[in-house]
Amino acid sequence: MTRQVEPSAGAPSAPDGRDPPLPVSPAGGDEPRGASAVGLDDARLSGWYREDSGELFRGVPIGADDVVVDVGCGAGVNSMFCARHGARVVAIDREAQLVHEVRARLAATGTRAHTGLVSDANPLPLEDGMATRVICTEVLQHLDDSRQVLAELFRIGAEGALYLLSVPGALQEDLQDRVLPPEYRGQPGGPLRVIGGDEFAQMVGDAGLVVVEHTSYGFFWSIWWALFWACKVELYDPAHPVLDHWTAAWRALLEMPQGQQLKQQLDQFMPISQVIVARKPG
């Protein structure tokens, strides 16, 4: 199961991308439109990007006293949120160009001195216990030795540090694999490892972390991506009647009296991603 699609800024990443499929402009620029706008509303209902409370995800508040390490930062969506809420951010990715771009965006915030590092996270070029918040979203499924990287994440966290971790949902990965066009198979990026829910929680616990919440979100994007492959449109301009109709249907569902309850049930059934909030003992 191998796919590689290059997302544009502000657009949802491909299901195997290293950014969570949350359509937030990393530079805090133009408001998202279409599927991105609906996806952002959906994500916020799931607990992401709570600007009022400063929670990157529910239960993970970000403030001026925090040192945040974002491992596999990608386009820097999570890093930028944390910087806007006053934290000192260390953004890490193995792609030098991404790190360069995120470093520039962080510097442009004018908030604090932030750092961008190029690393494959094995090991992390950081001292023990230096982070109060550790983020690693949509990364572990790409690694040959995810347990070693989890050990590194554990090492750099301070006692009581909070961790925000995510990997793709297993069922939707099976769906994408069934509908993926042949031309996207076997492209660079390496095989995607599917991590089941029980295995994910076990990995996090084995690393020494205490799981605070294990949840899932993003049924909307699971279906959107399955339809996207058939529509044969570009990711930077995914305009197509099928995608537009699905987006409109989901928007209408969220506005129904029981819409949010149904969303939660569908998110549990076939999420685009599963999320763990964990804490380092101490």
Main pleated sheet: 7 strands, mixed
User: What is the helix fraction of residues, given as a range?
Assistant: 25-40%
For the secondary structure, the number of strands is 10
Name the CATH class.
Answer: Alpha Beta
Strand content: 15-25%
Number of domains: 1
Order of helices and strands: HEEEEHEHEEHEHHEHHHE
Record the strand order, biggest sheet.
Answer: 6-5-4-7-8-10-9
Query: Segments where pLDDT lies below 50 for 5+ residues?
Result: 1-12, 15-28
CATH architecture designation: 3-Layer(aba) Sandwich
CA-based shape: globular
CATH-assigned homologous superfamily: Vaccinia Virus protein VP39
Structural class: alpha/beta
Integer-rounded radius of gyration: 18 Å
Description:
It is a single chain. The strands form 2 sheets. The chain has a 7-stranded mixed β-sheet, with helices on both faces. Strand 2 (55-57) and strand 3 (60-61) form a beta hairpin. Helix 2 packs parallel to helix 3 (96-109) and helix 8 packs across helix 9. With 282 residues, the chain is an alpha/beta fold. It contains 9 helices and 10 strands. It has a single domain, classed as Vaccinia Virus protein VP39 (Rossmann fold, 3-Layer(aba) Sandwich), CATH 3.40.50. The protein has helices spanning 34-45, 77-84, 96-109, 146-156, 170-179, 197-206, 219-231, 241-255, 259-269, and strands spanning 48-50, 55-57, 60-61, 67-71, 88-93, 115-118, 131-137, 157-168, 210-217, 273-279.
